Amino acid sequence: MSFKVFDNKRPTIGVLMDSLNAFDEYFEQEFAYLCNKMDLNLLLFPEELATRFRSDKKGTNIAFQFLNSNAIDGLVLMNNAISIYEEEEQFRRVFEKYGKHPLVCVGNDLEGVTTVVEDGRSGLRGALRHLIEDHDYREIAIINGEKTHRHAVNRFNTYKEMLEEYGIPYDEKRVVQGDYTVESGRQGVAKLLDENKATFEAIFAANDEMAIGAMEELIRRGYRIPEDMKILGYDDIRPVQFDFSPLSTVSQPVREMAKAALEQVLAQIQGDMSVKKIVLPSHFVKRNTCGCSVEVMVNREHLVHQGIERIIQDQEYKSFMMQSVHEVASAGDTEALRESIVQALPHLGIRNMFLALYDKEAKEVQQWKIPLKSSVFLAYREMERIREVEGREFVTEEIIPRELQLVDGRKTMILGPLYFHEELLGYTFFELGMQYARIYESIRKQIATILKFILLLEDIRQTQERLIESEKMAALANLVAGVAHEINTPIGVSVAAASYLEKQNRDMAAAYEAGKVKKSEFEQFLDNNLETASILMQNLNKAGELVNSFKNISVDQTSEQKRIFQVRSYLDQILLSLKPKLKDRDVDVHIDCDEELAVLGYPGAFSQIITNLVLNSLSHAFREDEEGTIRIQVEKVREKVRLVYSDNGKGIPEEDLDRIFEPFYTTNRSGGGTGLGLNVIYNLVRQKLDGQIRCTSKQGKGCRFEVEWKEQ
């Protein structure tokens, strides 16, 4: 049996829309109102029209790949979501997987598909006729949409037709292209005035957002609207109806289009798959920006309430953003992000929210295609965090794991991709709790940014751990080299002694067989053998001690076990392992420690601390040809072990003292320093020994490290 996101016996309608487009947002609000009224589930798939204009928006068209009959029963496809594809055939190839299921296209003709469109030509002709006939304007500029966008082409053609119809010469200097955003409206005015040096009395913008941007730029330059410049828009989105200077615009029948689209997709779900084309008229609305003083009748009490509600929601959103960024930046881990989101969701009116991460290996293989598997990063159902499913793998196309199926009441959900520049991360799946869907887009983008920051931190931590482990292995390598060097002498003497014994015995055996052994020679032979055997035993014992020393320290450095160890003798063993590093240097090491001092603790951590401190002095405190002194003092004070390590080298500059324990911080990178030696010491003291470490130093007078920890 196929899995469906909703299991509440209601039809689920999907809407693929452009999340940046104000018209689509207006349509979504009307459509959501109707779905709520008719007790239908609504699943929104937001796209971003600006995919081709902004290089960091490639991840948005991933939403297409979630469309399947398991997720939804019918689909309403907004024109602007199609427009990110330059050719209709290119779109059809992407859309094939949806198959022959209930589908209605809004705003554009699509062959073989039921469509709901507006007659934009009649409304725009009325708007331009108003400027030409009623205001006698002939110099009209246009900020058009992208050339490949179907509606932009139609609006531009209508503009040219009206100029020709009234005998007005077409002037390319009065034509600029935008991308349906407020910013492109500002840029359009700047290009008309500064680059094209165009003269014009009025501007028609191909949508209201570009018209708003054009007005803002004109006002910034000192123009008065409408006294110095007339502005026309297109769409009649809600904000322009109540702006400081209400915008004259071509009004699309959004409410009627939403109602017709829902009726048609429900008819298809019920079995009527006949293809229809529904055309609804647009009309020109006179307001202030065309120079007509028209009083806009609105329910001011409703408007004030709506404005206050949006301000509150914006403040809640900003509070969520600031709190999330601060908390996550401080904690720097994924759990902090989960908790921050969970605490903020009730304040944002969100009852259900799911966040999934794509399988890492799969997303690197096929960029901009959803992988087969994803994992649950966060599950929040009916205002409760479902911890037990976090980390669980599931089939990506199912959107959520089967055990999280939504069952209680109708819902409006919104699915959006999580991406950071060229990297796909996963997706969010929200229940729409607030009226303004754009806030969800902002939340989604902020989550993606914070998530990427955390994942980078985790990568850095893992890299740091690997480097620290390699630093530990380097210390162990020094120990091996030290013991190998020291063991060479006793083993070499032992081999020579054994060879001498073998020759002596062979010569004596030959003399004995020849009957030429004298008493004095035999006695000399015995004395030599005893002396050589003694030398052999002494050197073999020394080698054995070295091997035992190496065994103890190497086991300690790779073991997490604690034990009682004699500090003084253990220090001798550590310094013996460092002899290859010390033998060519004129640096004396003095130990001040009671011979009987025994400590219960982690000898491996102690060994690594001493080793790294000595190596740090040899690398940084003294030049290779310089004399120096290192002092190591260890004592027990009450229940604490106190280690004081000092050298009389060149010291540490005051400005560097606060940073010496930071990972990768080194003043000797050119000499091969990794910047991890003191960081390893710091972590061992603070985490392994649960102790404290501090460093004092003056340039030219050496440095002093004081370490204290409670006996384990």
TrEMBL record:
Database matches in InterPro entries: HATPase_C_sf, HATPase_dom, His_kinase_dom, HisK_dim/P_dom, LacI/GalR-like_sensor, Peripla_BP_I, Sig_transdc_His_kin-like_C
Residue intervals of the Histidine kinase domain: 482-712
Record field: catalytic activity: ATP + protein L-histidine = ADP + protein N-phospho-L-histidine
EC number(s) on file: 2.7.13.3
EC main group: transferase
Keywords: DNA-binding, Kinase, Phosphoprotein, Transcription, Transcription regulation, Transferase, Two-component regulatory system
CDD domains the UniProt entry points to: HATPase, HisKA, PBP1_LacI_sugar_binding-like
A single GO molecular function term of this UniProt record: transcription cis-regulatory region binding
UniProt protein name: histidine kinase
